[in-house]
Design goal:
The complex is a heterodimer of chains A (about 280) and B (about 550). By secondary structure, chain A is of the alpha/beta class. Helix content of chain A is about 35%, strand content about 15%. Chain B has about 550 residues and is of the alpha/beta class. The chains are: A alpha/beta (about 280), B alpha/beta (about 550). Chains A and B meet through strand 2, helix 3, helix 5 and helix 10 of A and helix 1, helix 7, helix 8, helix 9 and helix 10 of B.
Chain lengths: ~280, ~550
């Protein structure tokens, strides 16, 4: 498979200007560069959940598992545990990863299982036409909260740091080069990696102007420093205040769950072993 | 079998007294003498205190049910003596320590023996087991052999205590070994696990829940020996989704749970149906609704198992009733699930899961890994439409194929579609697999006939009631017909099994008669239904009374 045929015949149905295009293109760029770096493209399996983001499984010509809402991370874990030689990328939406399936995200981070989770965080439910999500700002007026949300948003970066993620980063759909570089680093990381991508929904929550004013790239930050990473992550709590840092917040080396998990050898002589086990019960 | 040689012993005490382990030793002593054994464990859901008891029954022929009557009651506490002495034919069969239990029977100075040996209280069991063996006329060699097989640092002391108990009991008439090859003992959970292993299970993913927690424990402890992957994840939802991930990478996986956990798995079940991913779900039933009775038995999740998951898709639901059937059908479930790309449920209950049985692997029917239909990588389409509906499989990281698995309605290549003609075609393709499965299953032993094969009245049941119904029907001139396959429903085999029958009596652990309704929906209408919903399995005597009432 060459870089040329990473597209499929599926007709793209994202809205013009959708931030998902940036993630699709960043992935195409990173995946397209894999063979040159000696990583066969056929080892990649892309998992998606349900929502606008999930259509990416139809648009990328790689092995994929278009799963169900919130559960993509658990599917990705199963794939990786079955075959640690696979490169497993789990694309998820914010309602998906931070709402319905947050348990899987937290536990995958806790296990430090070697998968890369890309969260397409547009801070609104797009496909269900505009409700608040776990990262919508306080007072968000959506179709399910016409008087404004009464909940504070979740800060996914501090959550992931607390859960034990060994790679935590943030990208932005309007900073393409940084996004590509961040995704590439996340995929190279041995262990659980989370890339929170601020991805703008032009139809239901267009934040381009706001983000463009507030984002900056991390510089002089030591990603090995957990406390510094936490401080940077807390600069912005997904409300109206604060500067929004982009780049790698945290990176640590820790044994990943799948290392040493696979049996040392393929299963064999099952019938014989069953008889031996039964003989021990006499 | 009328007048068969048999013996029942009950041991009881509090949770934490080691009743389960003691029952296992008692079972192994009887098994070593050539008896076919069934063991029932009854315990409330708590860790210390309460009342636990186990009944171990040995007989000449294979059995899967207990008797109310007992030959021996081994009482670790007063509560056991009070509750269970009514079961005894001869009060001398009540073996106890007069220092702690005030009752007529055979007194053994257990506490004094323990003090003398400097042994901890948990070893009372060994003394009691020894006393039972002495009183029952079991040769000392049979006891010694079982303790030798236990191994461990305490085995010498346990054996010494058993001997003290053995000598303290006035010996009964000798219990001669039967002229039969001793068989190993397994629990139903273990038989299920062994069947899955025989059929090539690569991974078992499970969140603990009674009555299948012991299947998780068994497979986790056997994982190294069998080169098996075992994962205990954060929830039942994660369990089934991980299992589907394993399968998508080509590894045979299974999950185990009970009704509450299965509620959480239903979305994954439907995903397996739509995305055509094989998975085996071991569903051990206990009484509901909700938490219900965690440590007791039920068959009331039948309709749930038959219909769980949104949409319409083929599924396999098997309901083994004996350890042999559990072994055979668990293997078959895994193989058929992979052959057809469908979810398969092994529908069992606490009675089978946590019961202990003599297991004859030779008569259980073959269980081995059968080949998965694999496809050609060039031009691969994950959902290729075929005459049987079955799409051959290819797995990542195949370099030639692009494997696209999809929960959304999709075309043959696995790309999402909402085009009406494709939607219709793919729905029909999936259902066609169900029709192919029906034809395949005609060659499987889905219906078993026991009792009086010419009886005009049939006792019809499924799952773990097979043992008790079969044994009781034999003595009453009734035909016993049990189903170990529920979906697709084996209507043709059942029709043959019921040939000449004028009256059907159904037996099940349900308050609303779900099994009876299932049979009736296929034209087999029970004239009487025996329903039980107090969480307890039928004893031989209870079943006899039920059937006598039903045929009157």
């Amino acid at each position: 498979m060459s870089a040329r045929d990473l597209s499929t015949r599926a007709v793209n149905t994202w809205c013009p200007g959708c931030g998902n295009f940036a993630i699709l293109n960043a992935l195409k760029s990173v995946l397209g560069g894999l063979p040159a770096s000696g990583a066969p493209l056929e080892r990649v399996v892309l998992v998606s959940g349900i929502g606008c983001h999930a259509k990416i499984a139809d648009y990328l010509n790689v092995h994929s598992f278009y799963s169900i809402h919130g559960r993509g991370v658990a599917v990705a874990e199963g794939l990786k545990l079955a075959n640690p030689g696979l490169t497993v990328i789990s694309c998820a939406g914010d309602g998906d990863a931070y709402g319905e399936g947050i348990e899987h995200l937290i536990f995958a981070a806790k296990r430090n299982l070697d998968i890369t989770v890309l969260v397409h965080d547009n801070r609104v439910y797009g496909l269900t036409t505009g409700q608040c999500t776990p990262t919508s700002p306080p007072g968000f007026r959506g179709r399910s909260t016409p008087d404004g949300s009464r909940e504070d948003p979740l800060n996914p970066l501090t959550l992931m740091l607390a859960a034990g993620a060994t790679f935590v980063a943030r990208g932005y759909s309007n900073r393409m080069d940084l996004l590509k570089e961040t995704v590439a680093q996340a995929m190279r990381h041995r262990g659980f990696s989370l890339v929170e991508v601020l991805q703008v929904c032009v139809t239901f929550y267009n934040l381009y102007a706001d983000y463009n004013k507030r984002v900056y790239e991390l510089e002089g930050h030591d990603p090995a420093d957990f406390d510094a990473a936490t401080a940077r992550a807390r600069e912005w709590n997904y409300g109206a205040e604060g500067r929004i840092a982009l780049g790698v917040f945290y990176r640590a080396e820790r044994p990943s769950f799948e290392q040493g998990f696979a049996p040392a050898r393929p299963a064999s002589r099952r019938a014989e072993k069953i008889r031996a086990l039964l003989a021990g019960r006499m | 079998m009328k007048n068969m040689k048999e013996l029942s012993v009950l041991i009881g005490g509090q949770a934490g007294d080691g009743i389960n382990q003691a029952a296992e030793l008692l079972g192994r002593i009887l098994a070593g003498l050539g008896y076919r054994v069934y063991g029932l464990i009854d315990y409330p859901s708590l860790i210390r205190g309460g009342h636990n008891f186990a009944i171990v029954r040995g007989a000449e022929a294979p059995i899967a049910a207990h008797r109310d009557a007992a030959d021996f009651v081994l009482a670790l506490d007063q509560g056991t003596a009070d509750r269970h002495r009514g079961r005894l034919r001869d009060p001398a069969g009540l073996i106890h320590d007069p220092e702690t239990v005030k009752v007529d029977g055979t007194g053994i100075p257990i506490q004094a023996i323990l003090r003398d040996a400097g042994a901890p209280a948990i070893m009372r069991n060994s003394c009691l087991i020894g006393a039972f063996a002495g009183k029952a006329g079991v040769g000392w060699g049979a006891v010694e052999k079982v303790y030798a097989g236990e191994g461990g640092k305490d085995s010498a002391l346990n054996l010494k205590l058993a001997r003290r108990g053995y000598d303290a009991a006035s010996p009964g008439p000798p219990l001669a070994p039967l002229d039969a090859t001793p068989l190993p003992l397994v629990t139903g959970n273990e038989a299920i696990g062994l069947g899955l292993l025989a059929a090539g299970l690569d991974a078992y993913v499970s969140y603990p829940m009674t009555p299948t927690s012991n299947l998780l424990h068994f497979l986790a402890s056997a994982a190294r020996q069998f080169d098996l992957k075992v994962v205990h994840p954060e929830s039942e939802i994660a369990a089934i989704l991980m299992a589907l991930g394993f399968a998508a990478a080509g590894e045979r996986s299974a999950v185990g749970t009970s009704g509450g956990g299965f509620c959480l798995m239903t979305e994954g079940m439907s995903l397996a149906g739509m995305a055509e991913i094989p998975v085996v779900i071991v569903l051990g039933q206990r009484p509901g609704p909700s938490t219900g009775l965690p440590t007791y038995t039920s068959q009331a999740d039948l309709n749930f198992a038959l219909s769980a998951g949104q949409g319409e898709f083929p599924r396999l639901v098997v309901a083994p009733g004996t350890p042999g059937e559990a072994y055979f059908w668990s293997a078959a479930a895994l193989n058929l699930s992979w052959k057809y790309g469908i979810p398969a449920i092994v529908l069992v209950d606490k009675t089978l899961c946590e019961g202990t049985f003599s297991f004859d692997i030779e008569s259980a029917g073959g269980a081995r890994e059968e080949e998965t239909p694999l496809g050609a990588a060039a031009g691969y389409r994950r959902y290729l439409d075929t005459a049987t509906g079955v799409s051959p499989l290819v797995f990542p990281p195949d370099p030639e194929a692009v494997v696209k698995v999809n929960s959304y309605e999709h075309d043959e290549a696995g790309l999402t579609t909402e085009a009406p003609e494709t939607v219709k075609k793919m729905q029909e393709k999936r259902l066609r697999k169900g029709a192919s499965l029906v034809a395949d299953l005609a060659g499987f032993p889905a219906v078993t006939v026991g009792g009086d094969a010419r009886g005009k009245t049939a006792v019809l049941c499924g799952g773990s009631n097979a043992g008790v119904c079969g044994e009781v029907a034999s003595g009453m001139g009734l035909r016993a017909v049990s189903l170990s396959l529920l979906s697709p429903f084996p209507a043709e085999q059942l029709s043959a099994a019921l040939a000449g029958v004028e009256r059907i009596i159904s037996v099940e652990h349900s308050a609303t008669g779900q099994f009876a309704a299932l049979a009736a929906a296929h034209g087999f209408v029970p004239a009487r239904r025996v329903l039980r919903y107090d969480g307890r399995p039928f004893s031989i005597e209870e079943m006899q009374r039920e059937l006598e009432g039903a045929i009157r």
